[in-house]
Each structure stands twice: as structure tokens, then as C-alpha cells.
Predict the structure.
Amino acid sequence: MSAATLVRISDLHKSYGTTPVLRGVDLQVRQGEVTCVIGPSGSGKSTLLRCVNHLEKINAGEIEVDGELIGYRRHKGRLHELKDRAITRQRATIGMVFQNFNLFPHLTVLENVVEAPIGVRGLGRAAAVALGEELIARVGLAGREDSYPRQLSGGQQQRIAIARALAMEPKLMLFDEPTSALDPELVGEVLAVIADLAEAGMTMVVVTHEMAFARQVADTVVFLDEGQVVESGPPGELLVNPRHARTREFLARVL
Amino acid sequence: MSVSTDLQPPSTARTAPAEVVPLRRPGRWISAVVVLVMLAAALRSVVTNEAFQWSVVAEYFTADVVLRGLGLTLWLTALTLVLGFALGTLLAVLRLSGNPVLVSVSWGYVWIFRSVPLLVQLLFWFNIGALYPRLSFGIPFGPDFVSLSSINLIGPTAAVIIGLTLHEAAYAAEIVRGGVLSVEQGQVEAALALGMGRGRILRRIVLPQAMRSIIPAAGNSLIGTLKGTSIVSVLAVQDLLFSVQLIYNRNYLIIPLLLVATIWYVVVTSVLSVGQYYVERYYARGAARALPPTPWQRLKGRLR
């Protein structure tokens, strides 16, 4: 294993008002690897993910993706926040999938997928539609291009949300509890799409409560509690033989 | 113990299902008849009362002066709507900008222009020459490039357009702001995560969704503006109302000529209401699983 490190998070601090959420998080994700972040609710998992594409401003620390500092510019030992345009350019290379899908309800499935490729990447309409149709087929929804999101089931909506993120051809995909809003019988179809992406070598950070999925797909599992990484390791070790008492307690509750 | 776990086999001889009788509601019939009789009586009095002078109404309904007045009313309404909502959208964006100065300016604008009655405002603009006899454009405290007499610049029509637009903008700002606030925050985050810029998000994602709550309020506001333009008759601007006033000041046929104006206002309002229905339907795409049929489609379906 000599893949380059794609994501490097060091000593990340973030608080909402006076409430600390992340208290010195260190995390590295290598190219082509899947990292699953687990932990009790309120442990800062979602916030960590949202910091990686600068949906949240950070209080201290550094986040690098592909060697580029996210959201800030280093100058004379201080971090200056980047201009909107520069942050927008960085976000365009990082795909994100939300718990509540957040598809655009007024646009059809195809329009949802091609909106950003045309408007942000500057792709021509024909090329974007071809790419969109290919991705919609890839998530198993060929033929539904002209449906509106509300005409789809939750699982189908989430698969379209994944296609929409992939249409930006990101170098990193972030999943924020992608199956938590789904009926149990729909969870499998979404996890299957994510597992396919892992197979294809996409670098991903997945916040999840699906321990079976983490065990199958993850290269590394990170256990986050009270804003700190308690331990991390391959799923075969962390999920089976956790070293920390807090990890053991958490796993006993969810497994 | 002789508890049988067998289910009773369903009886093979099924009796015909009992007929269902809906509740009779005689009160509905009685009240409907009473209301219809009252309506008929009112209609009869309107048709037979000589004082309405329907022949005069018919004679003046499409008179040139009236149609020209109607044209000006429609033009003023359209111009006020477009300019008012353009300025209103700008004010709403300022209000939502997060810059404390811009937020305060926008808030202050809405506060002052909602506080001053439209008529008072129109009179102010009409008399702007008394406040500022000359309007100059140049560097503040420095030389002027252009200097114009404000009486020449702002005649009655210009005063009316400025007054109506500024008034409309204050209400439009609140309507647009309400619409934008009604769009879920997750929509903006999803668009940001795709790398879209603020302007594009507003145009492509937020405003189209905000339109769903903007349109009904804007329709209200538009109809209010249409009728509100009648206020310009006090500045002798020849809108629909002032045109019929000109006529009845000559021939004293006050009631029939007011009816002419009334019917035109009702006709235009009806057309606008129908238009609003279709615009709402357009922006409902994706909000419901299937769009409701238009009244026309419903009629065709029923006739088939």
C-alpha cells in the first residue's frame, strides 16, 4: 500500500458558538480508499464532513485535499479565508451526498444531474446530457430521466443524488449518513451503488450507522466521540477487537 | 381443553350486500334556494333599475377615450409590476445579504415606503420641484455635469411612475424575501457542494422554488396595483378612472360611466386571475407528483 494521501486533516477544531464540536481531529485518507466514520450522534461526524468542503468555517487546524489547503490560504503564518470564487472551485472537485438527498425538486432527474456540469464545469449541453444519461444508468435508473424527484422513492432519489455528485467528476466523495432517511428495505440499493464506486477506486469518506456495510467496504474505520478520533483502523480490527472502552461501549449498543 | 384453532370456514351462501343510503341534507337545499332567490331579486333590480342606464354603459364601454384610459392603466400596471419587482428583488437580496449596512438600508426603505400612504407619496413626487428645484448629477460637493429643472423632468406621468414603483417595491421586497426564506436551506447547501456560485444558486435553484410562494402574493399585489393606479386620477393623469370622470363631468351621467370603469376593472382582474392560475401551475412542476388538470382539460374530460 503506497497510495498517495488525498485528504489530510490535522488538529481540526470547530465550535458552534461556545459549544465545541470538533476538538483536534487528525485524519488521513489515501487515494482510492474508503473511510467510514462511525460514532454516537452529536460526536461531530457530520460537521467533520462539512468542514472538508468548507460548508462550515473552521476555528483552527488544516484540511488539505490533493495537497491543496481547503477554504484558506497560508500567509505569514496565518490562515486567510479564500474568496467565494476560489472556494467554489475547490468544492467543484469534491462530491457530497446528503442524508436528505437535497435533490432540486423543480428540475427533472436529468436536469438535476446536468445542472452543475453545464453551469460550473462549462460542459456543452450535448456532452453533459450524454454524461448524465450514462451516470443515471450507472446508478440503475435509466429511463427515469424525465421524472421529477418527488415521483421517485427515497432510495431512487439518493441514487440520483449520487449520480449528480459524480457528474462533477470529483476526486473525492463525501457521504453524510446516506441511508439514514431511508426505509430499511431501500438501504441496500443505495449501499450497493456506493460499494460499486469503491470497487471502481473512488476515494470516499462515508459517515454511516451501517456497521455491516463498513465492515464490507471500508479500508479504514474511524471512531469519533465527543469531537475526537478515539481510534481508527481496518474494520476487521476496529469493529471486532476495539482497543478502547468507549469504542467497545458504542459497538455494543449498535451491533 | 377443547380450544379449536381452526378458523370458521367462510359461509358459502353470501347474502347480497346491504344498500348504502347517504345522509339526506334538506338544510342544504333550503339554503341554496333562499340564496338563489335573493340573487335573482338583486339581479332583477340591477337590470330593471332605470338609473343604471345600461344603454349609456354600452355606448361608452368601447369609446376611444375610455379605451385610451384603459390602455394607460394597463401600461402603468405592467410598468409598475416590472420595475417594482426588479427593485423589490434587489431590496430582498440586500436584506438577506448579511452586510449590516445593506440590511439596514433595505429594512429602512421598506419601513418608510410602507408607512407613507401612496396618495401622499404621489403628491410629494408631483411637487418635488418645491423641495429640489434643480436636479444635478455630478461629484458630491464638487462640480455638476448635468443640471436640470425638476419641474421639466418630473411631470405628472413621471411622478406617478416613480411613486407607484417605489411603493410597489417595498411590498415586492417582502414578498420576494418571504419566498426565498421558504426554500429549504438544504437546497442551497447541495448547490454549494456542487461548486455553484451565489448568483447562479439564486437564479437557478432558489428563485424558481421561491416562485411557488411568491406568485400568489404577487398576484394579490398586481391586482392591488391595477386598482391602485386609479389613484393617479388626482394628478390628472388620464387613466381609466380619470377618462370616465372627464366624460361625466361634461354629461353628468355619473353612475353609468362609473359602471364602465368598474366593468373594465373586473374584466382585467379576471384575466389576471386566470393568468395567475396558469403561472402557479407552471411553477408547481415537481412539487406535486402529477400536475392538476387545467379547467379546460377537466371540461374536455367531462364531455368525453
User: Anything to note?
Assistant: The first helix of chain A runs from residue 45 to 52.
